[in-house]
Amino acid sequence: MISARFHRSFDALDQLFGFTRRFYEQERVPAEERLVFDFCVEEIFTNFVKYEEFLDIAFQLAGDRQQVDAIHRLGPLRA
Q1: CB of 71 within 8 A of CB of 59?
Q2: Are 61 and 2 in contact (CB under 8 A)?
Q3: Using only C-alpha atoms, what is the Rg of the chain?
Q4: What does pTM read for this prediction?
Q5: What is the spatial distance between Cα 31 and Cα 6, in angstroms, rounded to a whole number?
Q6: What is the DSSP string of 47-72?
Q7: For the chain, how long is the longest CA-to-CA vector?
Q8: How far is the C-alpha of 47 from the C-alpha of 30, rounded, in Å?
Q9: What end-to-end distance do the CA atoms of the chain give, in Å?
Q10: Predicted confidence band at 55 (pLDDT cuts at 50, 70, 90)?
């Protein structure tokens, strides 16, 4: 399992894909599975960028290649 934190910005997409590449190499993910996986991770990330107000987005990728855990820590709730 690997994890990383990214600034909530579309400029961080290159870093995000570098992170997934490290995961692919570590877990020996076949090339034909990578595009779909990257698409899912990118969709989650861009939705956080567009619709959330927090500064950082943390991702955690599980080693079984079948599960992506997107960790998003909530700040204080507003009344």
Answers
A1: yes
A2: yes
A3: 13
A4: 0.76
A5: 24
A6: HHHHH---SEEEEEE-TTSS-EEEE-
A7: 47
A8: 26
A9: 36
A10: confident
